Amino acid sequence: MLLLVGCGTPERRWPFPRADARDDAAILATLADRTSGIDSLYAELAMAFEATERSAVFTAVVNYRAPDRIRMSAFKDILIASRSIFEFLLDGDRYITVFEGDGGPERQEGTLAQVDLVQPGFRAMIALREAMFLPGRIQPGAPARIERASGQTTLHTVTPSGHAVRWDLDPDTLGVVSGQVSFEGSQQPVTVQYESYRQAGKVYVPERFRLSDPAGGIVVEGWLEDLEVNPDLDPGIFDPAALDPRS
Question: Which residues, other chains included, contact 240 with Cβ-Cβ below 8 Å and sequence gap of 6+?
Fold first, then answer.
């Protein structure tokens, strides 16, 4: 999902109109309408990453091509140059990550079924995939259950990677307020809070979020700075060879 902290925190925006929530079908139709129509996406974000042993502030560029290709490139400006921090590519049911290790760039790749084994910071983002910027999206054929309790409206479904997710909805507008992603064998879900959104046509893209993975010991905060919906992306962006550490 796509973040500069030094530029200040943008004001909170909640552009969702009041929504029809008379029954489950109306809620699901509203969510589907708000998360459809994106064939491609380009975003620039300022991100703050905090882990047990390290922290960093960096810029991230996200390229997305429907239905299932995402590339995120993160870098940090150093005087007049930029230094790569990490890259990850999601293509179908496979992922590739390249990050700066103690001995230089390190590359990992595997299937989404192995996502629990990757670096903690990548685990959460890969599990969410396009749900980072399209929260509440229901994959074709995925289960979807609406629950109402104590004045709260919740959608239970699965993320694009197949992990169980709970989306908490604002009862008046049905905007996604937060989510919880569960991993098999872990009692501590990944949580993500969406504090502000930007409207792009009929689509609503988070422009401020906070992602926490207690089991992985990481917290990521992001601020959307630039957004293009349905740009013409170069197919080479998603070429696995482009993530070769030797290139």
Answer: 89, 91, 96, 109
Cβ count near 81 (within 10 Å): 8
State the Cα–Cα distance between residues 72 and 223, nearest whole angstrom.
15
What are the structural domain ranges in the chain? 5-243
| 5-243: CATH number | 2.50.20.10
- Alpha carbon separation from 8 to 11, 27, 44, 62, 224 (Å, rounded): 9, 35, 15, 21, 12
Asked if the model's pLDDT at residue 45 lies above 70, the reply is: yes
DSSP at 199: E
- Which amino acid is present at 82? S
Mean pLDDT of the residues in the chain: 85
Rounded to whole angstroms, the Cα distance separating 129 from 76 reads 23
Task: Encode pLDDT of 105-151 as tens digits.
Answer: 788 888 877 766 666 667 777 778 788 889 999 988 899 999 998 88
Q: Which residue has the tokens 């409206």?
A: 153
Backbone phi, then psi, for 240, in 5-degree steps?
-55, -30
State residue 186's pLDDT score.
72
Q: Distance from first CA to last CA of the chain, Å, rounded? A: 26
How far are the Cα atoms of 137, 151, 152, 198 from residue 233, in angstroms, in the given order? 22, 43, 39, 21
| CA separation for the pair 192, 59 (Å, rounded) | 19
Alpha carbons within 13 angstroms on the beta-carbon side of residue 176 total 35
The predicted model scores a pTM of 0.85
